[in-house]
Design goal:
DNA polymerase, domain 1, 6-stranded mixed beta sheet, 2 domains, Rossmann fold, elongated, single chain, 297 residues
Amino acid sequence: MQASDPRPVLLLDAFSLFFRSLHALPPMETSSGVQTSGIYGLSLVLLKLFREQRPKGGAFALDLPEPTFRHELYSAYKEGRGEIELEGAAEQIELFATFIEASGLASLFAAGFEADDVLATLSRELSRAGERPLVVSGDRDCLQLARDPARVLYVARGVQAVSYDEAAVEARFGVPPSLLPDYAALVGDPSDNLPGVPGIGPRTAAKLIGKFGHLPAILAQVDEVEPPRVREKIRAHMDRLLFFRHLASLRTDVPLPAGPRWRALDIDGLRGLFEQLEFVSLIPRLEALRADVEMAA
């Protein structure tokens, strides 16, 4: 299919979606005792996306276990995130690799970078190639990527998702997607352990960015910040604000390996896995996608 095809390309935040699925469902297992709740939930998400969005295909972006450049710059990055201790989690992470392979979708990662950075790089590449990326993630950082023609489906809870374009991001946060790192530097981001400026909340941060344009301009014109109490709060933390803005900014220059940036869904590969994992109820839903998938191939 040509790049002018209006159907989107799915860019999936692999582990974010997997762990949300794992949290959302009660424990499940096959007749032989294999834990499957996370894979089952993720299968539901994937089938729903292909049914409702009718994408051409997609790619999974994965995190590697090694530290990223952000951890090297800031040792407290994401500190405090507890280890996920759910029944069957470790076993299902191993099975997750099998699921990705069976799906037929592309799988991309890069040492030193997070899956979010891979998604940002893919979204930029595909947008420039005339595609319509649809980023699917439970990580709020990915809302930076909701820039036309790309959209973001934010999986806020379980397998429910909220769609964001540029206007929806600005309506929620008071700033456009490109300025979310500036916003995060001021407000903080507990999930990434970014402290922000104590006493500056979302409304104040949005007003400051709206008046001055971005964080560097706020710092350059700090004498003009009103009221004085806000000015002094910024002064007390201005030596680190640009650093935290840098940490919060997704990278679009990840050195991805050569090869396809997305692939079509493999109906037969997934059917085989569904049969193995006893996902009997999902097979008719999968087969209902066959005509669409074959047309996109």
